[in-house]
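call fold(seq) -> tokens
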Amino acid sequence: MKKMTMVLMLIGLAVLASRSEAIQIGIGYTFDTGLHFRVGKFEGQAIFGEANLLGARLYALEKPLTIKNRVLNFYTGLEANLVKSNLLDGGYVAGAFGGLDKAIYKKLHLNLDLGIYTASLNGFETVSDLGVAINTKLTWYFGK
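ret:
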């Protein structure tokens, strides 16, 4: 029930905020069973599973990139997430990422990025690690 309430609130906020032409607003599905909501260069996200992540992304750089007559949007940024789980006391995941965004149908965009992340998880003991993650997202942008 909490997930549905959050989704409805995000959709309502997106519809109201889409009146602004200066800020691009999008809502979408993260392919590892999550939702994200983007306003301008900032994105809030919630990923659900055995461990739940709640966090934010900052898209620091976005540039158009042409490859074989196809226009893609190259982006880089920073991400930070809090981790909650029934098996863990908590923790965080943070890192930097870079990737490509492609409009596949008008306002529907597919994102693929690769990042280097550090994670620190608390349970019986604290475990920290550094690794690489691939993220895929589907985003629908509102407004013009």
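The mean pLDDT is 84.
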